[in-house]
Design brief:
It contains 14 helices and 17 strands. Helix 13 runs antiparallel to helix 14. It has a 5-stranded antiparallel sheet with strand order 2-1-5-4-3. It has a 5-stranded antiparallel sheet with strand order 7-6-10-9-8. Strands 11-13-14-16-15 form a 5-stranded mixed sheet, with helices on one face. Strand 3 and strand 4 form a beta hairpin. By secondary structure, it is α+β, with helices and mostly antiparallel strands.
Length: 541
């Protein structure tokens, strides 16, 4: 900034030249825009900084006061002319703010300072030397500050939280209307000072408040903490306090803290309700857990009881089934022995009667009828014995017995059967296993004859290592095995399937029934069994 000449300005030429030299140096080095206006000629010299401030080159600005008059804002012309007029008529200096037009058209706010240069002879002002300081940044800062203050005012007025602004230098605190309403106070009832807040703070929370204040003073960018403030009616309001420090310069001391107090009453009430609900839930869970534990104990006891009952039932079923087979074997043997002996005697009697009846035609006819009945009786007894216990099963083994049964079954029911066997030529399974597999195959073929309407059946008996597989497959009408539905019948088929599954379980086998409506049925049995070598000399079918 150019310093105005003192009242005792230089009076000789040498001092004037020295003063002008200092003026030129000031023109060259000043950070402000410097100008020198000769009142007698109207000529004005502008410094390079002055032209840069307004965006002009050296040749863009006429070196006359007319240029300045064209650049000044019309609304600022009168105040500027009045200031220079006062200076010309004896004033020492002037300061005025005005707007000058930038080269691109916008207005630049400047503060203009002018100092008079007087004629040494008569003291008349012959020149005015001055500066123009660019106020653009300050104006922007002022605008931003004003907008910020307006936003702060609006925030104070409209915030749902209680807003406060604490001046640390003076101790003054501005509280928003919402802050006072939150604690039940009117505007005049809260002193605008930090002491009011300190009196409202719960004594047990003072140490916490001091701690967060120290954090802010030590450079922490913000804080968040919960406090209790006394309501006008005496109870304490839980608030969430958030504070933001404000410094004049980035690294300077904190001069203000602006923050909010959020009423936590509803949240605390909700937390209490939630805690009570959780406690109630935990109590009910404990009660329910105890009940479930008791029920589980009862269930485990019931399961153990049922397991024992199931084991007993299975054991009983096994003993009944195998006792039944033993009884079948005994009855079949006795029928074979006793009826066989009687039928043999009957056949011999018929032969003798045939020889005696040759001379009597009527008697010969009766004897032939008797012979026919005796032969039919012999076949029926043989079939009954076979049904009760096929001798081939004991004498020749499962493979031969099953092949004989399939052949006889096919002849009786008129459905072709194709038998596939693999292994079990020189090996035998245990008697119980062979009997069970034979009975399952027998029941499956019986079901096919009764219900399937099949035209072809395949029976597969294979040994695969220590595994035995039995498959009975037909091309009949099938049923929905997944849905549990079966073709309408008298119920015997369902009973037969259950019987097969129970028999399979007795020997540790798994039995699967696969069927689809219209695509036939497959009975598949798998099991692991010990293989025994057959005695020498046994015939195999």
């Amino acid at each position: 900034m150019l310093v105005p000449p003192a009242p005792d300005a230089p009076r000789d030429l040498a001092e004037l030249r020295e003063s002008e030299e200092r003026l030129r140096l000031a023109f060259a080095g000043a950070q402000e825009g410097v100008w020198d206006w000769n009142l007698e000629t109207g000529a004005v010299i502008y410094s390079a900084r002055w032209r840069e401030m307004l965006g002009y080159d050296a040749d863009d600005v006429e070196p006359h006061v007319r240029a300045w008059e064209r650049l000044i804002h019309p609304d600022d012309r009168e105040p500027a002319l009045a200031a220079t007029s006062r200076l010309a008529h004896g004033g020492d200096a002037y300061r005025v703010e005005c707007r000058l037009r930038h080269k691109d058209g916008h207005w630049v706010h400047v503060v203009s300072r002018g100092y008079p240069v007087r004629d040494p002879a008569d003291g008349r002002v012959v020149r005015i030397v001055g500066t123009h300081l660019d106020l653009s940044e300050r104006k922007q800062a002022e605008l931003a500050l004003r907008e910020s203050e307006e936003r702060l005012t609006l925030a104070f007025a409209g915030a749902q939280e209680g807003v406060w602004d604490w001046n640390l230098e003076s101790g003054a605190v501005v509280y928003s209307k919402r802050w006072k309403e939150m604690l039940g106070y009117d505007d005049a009832e809260v002193e605008p000072h930090v002491s009011a807040w300190e009196r409202l703070l719960h004594p047990d929370d003072r140490a916490k408040a001091d701690a967060v204040n120290r954090l802010v003073m030590e450079g922490h960018p913000s804080y968040e903490a919960e406090f209790r403030l006394r309501h006008k009616d005496g109870h304490y309001v839980h608030v969430l306090s958030r504070g933001l420090p404000i410094r004049r310069i980035p690294e300077g001391p904190v001069v203000r803290i602006v923050g909010t107090h959020f009423d936590l009453t509803e949240r605390k009430r909700a937390e209490d309700a939630l805690r009570q609900a959780q406690e109630e839930l935990e109590r009910r869970v404990d009660e329910r857990t105890a009940e479930l534990a008791q029920v589980n104990t009862s269930l485990r006891q019931e399961m153990r009881r049922r397991e024992r009952a199931e084991r007993a039932r299975t054991d009983l079923l096994g003993r009944l089934v195998f006792a039944q087979e033993d009884e079948r074997r005994r009855i079949a043997r006795e029928m074979h022995d006793q009826f066989g002996e009687h039928l043999t005697a009957l056949a011999r009697c018929v032969d003798r009667l045939t020889a005696l009846a040759d001379a009597d035609p009527r008697l010969a006819s009766e004897v032939r009828t008797l012979d026919h009945v005796a032969q039919r009786l012999d076949r029926d007894v043989e079939h009954l014995v076979w049904e009760l216990r096929p001798t081939a099963l004991d004498d020749l083994g499962l493979r031969a017995a099953l092949a004989n049964y399939a052949k006889d079954w096919s002849a009786r029911v008129g459905i072709p059967v194709k038998m596939h066997t693999s292994g079990l030529l020189d090996e035998r399974l245990s008697s119980d296993v062979e009997t069970t597999l034979y009975r399952i195959a027998q029941e499956a073929l019986t079901n096919i004859a009764k219900h399937s309407r099949a035209t072809h059946v395949e029976v597969i008996l294979e040994r695969r290592g220590h595994a035995v597989v039995l498959i009975i497959e037909d091309n009949g009408i099938g049923f929905d095995a997944d849905g549990g539905s079966e073709p309408p019948d008298d119920g015997s088929r369902s009973f037969g399937l259950l019987g097969m599954q129970e028999r399979a379980a007795l020997i540790g086998a798994t039995l699967t029934i696969e069927s689809t409506v219209g695509q036939g049925t497959t009975v598949l049995l798998r099991m692991t069994a010990d293989i025994q070598t057959s005695p020498q000399g046994l015939a195999h079918g």
